[in-house]
C-alpha cells in the first residue's frame, strides 16, 4: 500500500488546513480533513494532524470509531482493549460474540465517549510498547490504523520520539469529534471516525453508512475533487447510531469505473462501483449464511462432546475443558456476552498476544517434530525462551482469570495467548523434563539418558514442591483456589526436576460466596477422585489433598493411580485403596515390611526406609475416606519439608558410607 508521501502539499492546498478553526465563526466550522499530513510526524503546521478541534457547543458526546479487524486484534474483546472501549457494547452493536475471532478486514463499529481535552476532541486509549521496532508512527498508523497520529502522540506523551523503549506506556488520543451547531441543525447526531482504506472513495464510504454524500464532504471540508489517503480518518455525519457493518472488503478491487476525480499519481484512492456494492451485499449474505452454519456446527459438536461420559486419561484433553452441565445452559442464554471480555483487558497487561503467524513460525507450522504431546507444541516465539504452546477449544476464560492471580514457582505460568478461528492457543512456560507421570512410567523422552528413573531425593523434592504449590493455591493466592484436577500428568518437571503444577482449567475458588459447593457434574480422572466428590459432588480443598495423596503414592510406588495387581489375577486396582493393606494397624515391623514391598523397584535399596514409611503414612492420611481426617496443605507442606530435610541428612550419610547409587541420575 503506497500512500505517496513525496508531494505532501500536492492536491490539497495546505492553506485551508492551517489553524483553520481559529479564524472561523465557532459554531459553523466543520473539521478539516487531515490529508496526508499524518505521514510527516514533525510537521505540526497542520493542526488537523493533532486532532479534531473542539468547535461544538458540547464538550463531550458519544461517538463511534470504525476499526478493521486485524491480527492480533480480531475479536471485540481484544479490540476493546486496544481502543479502551467496552467489549459488551461492541459485540452488541456488531451482533457478534465478544470473543469470537472475526474475519480480517471486517469493519467493526466501536462506541466510545468523545471529549474535549483542551483544544482537541479525543478518546484516550493506552498502549504499552512491546517491541524495539515500534515508533510513534507505527503505533498510530499500523496498530491504530490511523485512528491516531504520530503528531498527537508526540504532543501528548512525555517520551522523546527518538528514544522510545519497550514498556513505555503511551496515551493514545483517538480521533473523534462532536457535531457542530450547523450539523445538529440538519439532524446530525453523531460523527463516526472512519478509517480510509486504499481503494475507498468518499461516495462509496457514504453509501456504506447510508450517509448523505454532501454532508460527508462538508463535515470534512472536502469537495468532490479532493484526494483522500489510506490510514487517515474521515468523519461520517449520521442522524442515528451506526449499525452493524458486515463488510469484508473484497480481496481485489476491480478497477473503478464511476466517473470520479482521476486519482493523482501518488494516491491509490480508487472507487467502488455499484456492481461492487451488489457484490458486497451478496457476499455479506453468503458470509452471514456461512456464519450461521458454522455456529450451528460448532454448537452441535460441543454438545455432543459434553454428553460423553467420564473417561480415563485418554480423553483428558477434552475432559479437562469440559464444563459442568449447568454452565453450558447459562452460556446458551448469553452467547453474546462471555466473561473473557473483561478478562482479556486485564490480561493483556501481563501477557503477550501473538499472531497465528508467529505461532506458525515458532512451531514450524505445528510440525510433528514440535509436538510435545496431544495438542501441546514446543516453540520458540520471536527468539524468546522455549514455550509450550497448547491449542484449546472452547472456554479458557476460567484458566486465564485464575492464572492472572497466580505467581508461584511451583505453578506453571501463562505467558501468552493467541486467538485463531475457533481455537485459543495458550502459551506457557516450558518444563523441559516433561510430566511426572512420564517419568514414573518410564515414558520420558526429555530425560537424561535412557532407563533413567527418579531417585529418592528427587521424588521427595517433587512431593515438597507440589505441596508448596498446592498450599499456595489453597491458602495464599487471592482468591484461594481448589485445583480439582491434580494428577501426576499435571505435575511438570523443570530442567532441575523442580515440580510445577499445571492445568488449572478446572480450578475454582475455594469460597463460592461462602456456600458449600456441590456439583451434579463430576469430572476428573479416575483414581484421583475423592469419595465425597464422586458420591456427593462435594467440592472442598480436601479434594486436592486426596489427589495429592495419590500422587505421593505414585512417587513412592512407581505405580499408576489405577494399576494392575499381579497378585490378584491381574485385576485393576485403585492405588489409594492398596495403601490400606500396606500399613497394617500401625504395627511398626509389619508396616516397614509392607512399605518395602510397596516402594518402586527402580529405587532398589537406595532410600531411607524410615522416611518411606513416614511418607506412606502421610499419603494414607491424605487418602482417608473421611475428608475430615485428611491433613491440610499447610500441615502437609511442613511434614514434607521435614522429610525433605531428613533426606538431605540421609544423603550425606549415604555418601559418607560410600554406597553406590543405583540411579542413573547423580545425586547432588
Ligand atoms: C451549514 O450547513 C449548511 C447546510 O445545512 C451548509 O450548506 C453550510 O455550508 C454549512 N456551513 C458551514 C460553515 O459548513
Ligand atoms: C510550516 O510552516 C512554515 C511557515 O508557516 C513553513 O516555513 C514550513 O516550511 C512549514 N513546514 C512544513 C513541513 O510544511
Ligand atoms: C454501553 O452502552 C450503553 C448504551 O449505549 C451505555 O449506557 C453504557 O455506558 C455503555 N457502556 C460502556 C462501558 O461504555
Ligand atoms: C487524555 O489524555 C490527555 C493527555 O494525557 C489528558 O490531558 C486528557 O485529560 C485525557 N482526557 C480524558 C478524557 O481522560
Ligand atoms: C501504515 O500501515 C499499513 C498497515 O500496517 C501499512 O501497510 C502501510 O505501509 C503503513 N504506511 C506507511 C506510510 O508506512
From TrEMBL:
It is found in: Cell membrane. The gene is LYK5. It comes from Platanthera zijinensis. Residues 345-647 form the Protein kinase domain. This is Protein LYK5. Residues 248-266 have a biased composition (Pro residues). GO terms for cellular component: plasma membrane. It comes from the Eukaryota. Residues 192-236 form the LysM domain. Keywords: ATP-binding, Cell membrane, Disulfide bond, Membrane, Nucleotide-binding, Signal, Transmembrane, Transmembrane helix.
Amino acid at each position: 500500500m503506497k500512500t505517496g508521501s513525496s508531494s505532501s502539499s500536492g492536491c490539497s492546498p495546505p492553506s485551508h488546513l492551517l489553524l483553520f478553526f481559529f479564524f472561523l465563526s465557532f459554531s459553523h466550522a466543520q473539521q478539516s480533513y487531515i490529508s496526508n499530513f499524518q505521514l510527516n510526524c514533525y510537521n505540526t503546521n497542520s493542526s488537523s494532524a493533532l486532532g479534531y478541534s473542539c468547535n461544538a457547543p458540547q464538550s463531550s458526546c458519544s461517538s463511534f470509531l470504525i476499526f478493521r479487524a486485524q491480527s492480533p486484534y480480531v475479536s471485540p474483546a481484544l479490540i476493546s482493549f486496544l481502543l479502551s472501549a467496552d467489549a459488551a457494547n461492541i459485540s452488541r452493536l456488531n451482533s457478534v460474540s465478544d470473543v469470537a475471532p472475526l474475519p480480517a478486514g471486517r469493519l467493526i463499529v466501536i462506541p466510545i465517549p468523545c471529549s474535549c481535552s483542551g483544544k482537541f476532541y479525543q478518546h484516550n486509549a493506552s498502549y504499552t510498547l512491546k517491541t524495539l521496532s515500534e515508533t510513534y508512527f507505527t503505533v498510530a498508523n499500523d496498530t491504530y490504523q490511523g485512528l491516531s497520529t504520530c503528531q498527537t502522540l508526540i504532543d501528548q506523551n512525555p517520551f522523546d520520539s527518538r528514544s522510545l523503549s519497550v514498556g513505555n506506556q503511551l496515551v493514545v488520543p483517538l480521533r473523534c469529534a462532536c457535531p457542530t451547531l450547523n450539523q445538529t441543525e440538519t439532524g446530525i447526531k453523531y460523527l463516526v471516525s472512519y478509517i480510509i482504506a486504499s481503494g475507498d472513495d468518499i461516495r462509496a464510504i457514504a453509501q456504506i453508512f447510508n450517509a448523505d454524500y454532501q454532508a460527508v464532504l462538508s463535515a470534512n471540508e472536502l469537495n468532490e475533487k479532493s484526494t483522500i489517503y489510506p490510514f487517515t480518518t474521515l468523519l461520517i455525519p449520521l442522524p442515528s447510531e451506526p449499525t452493524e457493518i458486515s463488510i469484508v472488503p473484497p480481496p481485489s478491487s476491480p478497477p473503478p469505473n464511476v466517473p470520479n476525480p482521476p486519482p493523482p499519481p501518488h494516491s491509490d484512492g480508487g472507487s467502488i462501483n455499484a456492481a461492487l456494492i451488489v457484490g458486497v451485499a451478496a457476499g455479506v449474505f453468503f458470509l452471514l449464511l456461512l456464519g450461521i452454519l458454522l455456529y450451528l456446527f460448532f454448537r452441535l459438536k460441543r454438545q455432543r462432546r459434553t454428553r460423553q461420559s467420564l473417561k480415563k486419561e485418554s480423553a483428558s484433553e477434552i475432559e479437562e475443558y469440559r464444563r459442568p452441565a449447568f454452565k453450558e445452559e447459562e452460556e446458551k442464554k448469553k452467547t453474546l456476552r462471555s466473561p473473557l471480555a473483561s478478562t482479556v483487558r486485564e490480561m493483556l497487561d501481563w501477557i503477550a498476544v501473538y499472531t497465528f503467524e508467529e505461532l506458525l513460525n515458532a512451531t514450524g507450522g505445528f510440525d510433528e517434530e514440535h509436538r510435545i504431546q496431544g495438542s501441546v507444541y514446543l516453540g520458540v516465539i520471536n527468539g524468546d525462551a522455549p514455550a509450550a504452546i497448547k491449542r484449546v477449544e472452547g472456554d479458557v476464560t476460567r484458566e486465564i482469570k485464575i492464572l492472572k492471580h497466580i505467581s508461584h514457582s511451583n505453578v506453571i505460568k501463562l505467558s501468552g495467548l493467541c486467538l485463531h478461528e475457533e481455537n485459543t492457543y495458550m502459551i506457557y512456560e516450558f518444563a523441559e523434563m516433561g510430566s511426572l507421570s512420564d517419568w514414573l512410567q518410564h515414558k520420558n523422552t526429555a530425560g537424561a539418558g535412557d532407563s533413567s528413573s527418579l531417585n529418592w531425593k528427587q521424588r521427595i523434592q517433587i512431593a515438597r514442591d507440589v505441596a508448596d504449590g498446592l498450599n499456595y493455591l489453597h491458602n495464599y493466592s487471592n482468591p484461594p483456589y481448589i485445583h480439582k484436577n491434580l494428577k501426576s500428568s499435571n505435575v511438570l518437571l523443570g530442567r532441575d526436576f523442580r515440580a510445577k503444577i499445571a492445568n488449572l482449567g478446572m480450578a475454582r475458588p475455594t469460597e463460592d460466596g461462602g456456600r458449600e459447593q456441590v456439583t451434579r457434574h463430576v469430572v476428573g480422572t479416575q483414581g484421583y477422585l475423592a469419595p465425597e466428590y464422586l458420591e456427593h459432588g462435594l467440592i472442598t480443598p480436601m479434594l486436592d489433598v486426596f489427589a495429592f495423596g495419590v500422587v505421593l503414592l505414585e512417587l513412592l510406588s512407581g505405580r499408576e493411580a489405577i494399576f494392575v495387581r499381579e497378585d490378584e489375577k491381574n485385576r485393576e486396582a485403585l492405588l489409594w485403596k492398596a495403601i490400606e493393606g500396606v500399613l497394617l494397624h500401625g504395627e511398626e515391623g509389619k508396616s516397614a515390611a509392607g512399605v518395602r514391598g510397596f516402594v518402586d523397584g527402580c529405587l532398589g535399596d537406595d532410600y531411607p526406609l524410615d522416611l518411606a514409611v513416614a511418607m506412606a503414612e502421610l499419603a494414607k492420611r491424605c487418602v482417608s475416606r473421611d475428608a475430615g481426617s485428611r491433613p491440610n496443605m499447610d500441615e502437609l507442606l511442613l511434614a514434607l519439608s521435614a522429610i525433605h530435610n531428613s533426606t538431605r541428612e540421609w544423603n550425606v550419610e549415604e555418601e559418607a558410607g560410600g554406597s553406590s547409587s543405583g540411579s542413573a541420575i547423580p545425586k547432588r
